[in-house]
Write a structure and sequence with these properties.
- The complex is a heterodimer of chains A (95) and B (466).
- With 95 residues, chain A is an all-alpha fold.
- Chain A contains four helices and no strands.
- With 466 residues, chain B is an alpha/beta fold.
- Chain B has helices spanning 4-26, 33-52, 60-80, 86-115, 121-149, 162-182, 186-204, 212-234, 237-261, 265-270, 297-305, 316-321, 324-336, 355-362, 373-376, 398-401, 452-464, and strands at residues 293-294, 309-314, 340-345, 370-372, 385-389, 420-425, 445-449.
- In chain B, strands 1-7-6-5-2-3-4 form a seven-stranded parallel beta sheet.
- In chain B, strand 5 (385-389), helix 16 and strand 6 (420-425) form a beta-alpha-beta unit.
- Chain B is elongated and about 80 Å long.
- The N and C termini of chain B lie far apart (81 Å).
- The model of chain B is unreliable at 274-282 (pLDDT under 50).
- The chains are: A mainly alpha (95), B alpha/beta (466).
- At the A-B interface, helix 1, helix 2, helix 3 and helix 4 of A face helix 1, helix 2, helix 3, helix 4 and helix 8 of B.
Amino acid sequence: MSESLIGALFVFVLASFAGFEVITKVPPTLHTPLMSGANAISGIAVIGAMVVAGPSLTSDNNFIVIMGLIAITLAMINVVGGFMVTDRMLQMFKK
Amino acid sequence: MENFLPSTIQLSYIVATGLFFLGLKKLGSPATARQGNTWASVGMLIAVVATLLDAGVVNYPMILGAIALGSIIGFIAAKKVEMTQMPQMVGLLNGLGGAASALVAIAEFYRLLLAGDGVPIPATVTAILGSLIGGITFTGSFVAFAKLQGLIGGKPMSLPGQKLINIFLLGLFLAGSVGLLIAPSSNIFLVITGISLILGLFLVLPIGGGDMPVVISLLNSLSGLAASAAGFVVMNNILIVAGALVGASGIILTVIMCKGMNRTLTNVLFSAFGGGATGSGGVAADGTEKSYRQVDAETGAMMLGYARSVVVVPGYGMAVAQAQHSVRELADQLATRGVEVKYAIHPVAGRMPGHMNVLLAEANVPYSQLYDMDDINGEFDRTDVALVIGANDVVNPDAKEDANSPIYGMPILEVDKAKNTIVIKRSMKPGYAGIDNQLFYRDKTAMYFGNAKEAVADLVSEVKQL
């Protein structure tokens, strides 16, 4: 296996463990906002999509760039919709 | 200085990742949750702006156009969605995230293929995983959305020989993957992507509406893992870390939901619960029709109005009828009469984790009045009236008493211990699990039939006249 892949696996495993530690003991009141907030973060795929759609359009790569652009659009719906709807919900929670 | 830009981008990613971690941590506590969400969104903004500086990203007009288009659609959707539609909204957003991740994996594979230098094995493997997880998340979420939105029935659906078909598809997928490792080909990649999409359909179609809290949490987790997989394909740490974080939070919720039903994840996914079981349908073991007691709004209002303590148990029926505002009004009326009102929330009540909490918050019920199952169960024997609104399986005493019941062992809200129980329900029909509920035939139980919203509104006007 290539060194970069090992490094990436290392990062993935550590991040998973850290994730489990950070998010334990969430009160049920916050289950939905936690889920929709996390959901918005999964829109991070937009970064990958921007890299894929990054090069200028040529006749060779046009469908790759178009796939990237579609991915950007979908991921941004996820990001903006997710964060905003979470904020709307949290705004309602009162003591 | 030529390293300046790439380093700036990577450093920005580290800052963004830190904000994601802190944001999610803060989302775990009511006092800081809103701030946490803001922090995470600032992290996302930083990451997007930093990526625009990438030397490989030059196609600005189109990229900015796509960002603007997605943001506008997301903005409108978030503004327009009703709180009662939140489960399907979350389902839909999960699906879009999964689709985006799958597209990234697919596009990167094609780019490597076109570059003509051969596709390295690690890139092929991660691209396969990315399209598999992303594809399943995409179609699975859309089935969940369609079920929650009522576009297709909530009942489990499966083809005859579904298991064999699934095994066949998986075999085909594996064979295609091996083929890709031997000789990368765009056609084979297209086929295995198609299989991933079909697998997503077949994974969620057989799952009944009442199991949706588990499914939505699982798809949430998968949408994170899909982003991680896409991160492996384009070798970008922020995707890997943020995706892993979401994957972890989704799995935590999935486990909580499974515990709330006393079932394992494999049992939820592969046993097509509900629909098959028919239940005894109100007929006792000796064949006689079991009797139940029915009350009207006036009697119900008297029971509630002259009680000292009332515990409200909301369920999916309250969400469907959008009765949360009437419920709040009823609680207010009772409170002015000196009745102590609490809400008992079962972990899997409704169609997603925390569903009832969101609806009651929308109706301005303070969350200090909401009690978890473990906190309230000890109080039912001191409760005068338990008011069950559109909940069924989560209050079925069979889960404790009948070892033959399909839901035996599931933790329930023990409303049968209250001095009196009023159940608001449309009819005597069993719940999604198709299981008859012994609670309805108990001496202490009074059935009050009707649409939850109208029934509670009638209770409100009757209580006012007491």
